[in-house]
């Protein structure tokens, strides 16, 4: 069966299979093609959108804590993927651990959502972490600002402000090019 003909119910079943068995990207790629792995929400160097739902951690703290505790990434690997220094990542993890000593719940760590945020979006230091996440969800995933607010457990006005800042910064960058 060609990959584009896979019914949504089957995608959901495959996603559940992966979540229940806590398979990582390497195991999923060994079983399925890379396109199917992406469709069921398993991507390398990415974080499920659910980890941002907690109100105790900042966006960067959530990313670092998730990757270090749930994916067993080293601080150096996280730093390289996010375009930050290892010291920054270690400090961020240390602060996150103090704020939230327990691990993410299984619903946050192994979600059934198909939306993952690639860490590479953080490399553009022109935007803040939350701004980058909101911009990615709005422009790449084509979600409404209200839907993003619900997914991230943030106020609609906070999400609007973050997205508006990215638009203004992008417009300013475009003006400077000419």
Write the SSE topology.
Blueprint: H1 8-21, H2 25-31, H3 34-39, E1 46-48, H4 59-69, H5 75-82, H6 86-99, H7 106-109, E2 116-118, H8 129-139, H9 145-152, H10 156-177
Antiparallel strand pairs: 1-2
Describe the structure.
With 178 residues, this protein is mainly alpha-helical. The chain is built from ten helices and two strands. Strands 1-2 form a two-stranded antiparallel ribbon. α8 packs across α10. The longest helix is centred in the last third of the chain and has 22 residues.
Count of individual helical segments: 10
Structural class, from secondary structure content?
A: mainly alpha
Largest sheet: number of strands, sense, barrel closure: 2 strands, antiparallel
Fraction in helix: 55-70%
List unreliable stretches of 5+ residues: none
Order of helices and strands: HHHEHHHHEHHH
Q: What strand line-up does the widest sheet have?
A: 1-2
User: Overall 3D geometry?
Assistant: globular
Mean pLDDT value: 83
The total number of structural domains is: 2
Quaternary structure annotation: single chain
Distance between the termini: 49 Å
Number of strands: 2
Give the strand content.
under 5%
């Amino acid at each position: 069966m060609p990959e584009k003909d896979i019914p949504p119910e089957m995608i959901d079943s495959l996603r559940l299979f992966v979540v229940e068995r806590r398979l990582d990207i390497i195991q999923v790629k060994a079983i399925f093609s890379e396109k199917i792995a992406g469709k069921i929400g398993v991507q390398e160097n990415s974080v499920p959108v659910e980890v941002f739902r907690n109100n105790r951690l900042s966006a960067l703290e959530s990313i670092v804590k998730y990757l270090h505790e749930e994916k067993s990434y080293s601080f150096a690997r996280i730093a390289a993927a996010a375009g930050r220094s290892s010291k920054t990542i270690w400090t961020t993890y240390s602060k996150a651990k103090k704020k939230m000593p327990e691990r993410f719940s299984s619903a946050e760590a192994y979600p059934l959502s198909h939306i993952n945020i690639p860490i590479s979006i953080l490399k553009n230091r022109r935007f803040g972490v939350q701004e980058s996440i909101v911009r990615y969800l709005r422009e790449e995933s084509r979600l409404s600002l209200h839907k993003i607010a619900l997914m991230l457990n943030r106020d609609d006005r906070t999400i609007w402000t973050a997205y508006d800042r990215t638009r203004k910064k992008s417009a300013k960058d475009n003006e400077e090019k000419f």
